[in-house]
Amino acid sequence: MRKTARMQAPSTNNRRKFRRFPPPQLQVSWRIRKGFFTPYALAQSEDFTREGVSILVKRQATGDSALSKGTRVELRLVLEMATGDLVVERLVARVQNQRSIGDATLYGLMFDFAANRYMRSEHTKAQLGRIEGILDRTEKLRLRVQPLNAIPAFARNDQS
Predict the structure, then answer these.
(1) What are the backbone dihedrals phi and psi of residue 47, each rounded to the nearest 5 degrees, phi first?
(2) pTM (predicted TM-score)
């Protein structure tokens, strides 16, 4: 039987229905579509699911933010792999939540699959599922090969 990434019972802190994956090799670029040639801004990706992504954006010197809840953005995802990069462009997402963290803001973005024909296509959904699968396998491998002292339950208190 194939295991799914769904969580059994969501906790009060985590309301997502899909497991979050830490994406160390996932680059996220975003832009608000105001003009035809609006450039992409690079953001640090914090976690990823096939339903959305969270990004950490440094605050501007002026302190104001271009993103707010409900803002529609276009995303470009690049998953770096040894065999070549997996690139998914023209993804449409909406800002679902935001939280200040130091000198940056963490934005929770949810993909808008009803936005246009590209977002409704099975190819787009398959690409996002493929990224999630790769990140899932990478995380499982990382956990399998980590040293025992990195696991809190097995860590030794070596006080010499």
Answers:
(1) -160, 165
(2) 0.71
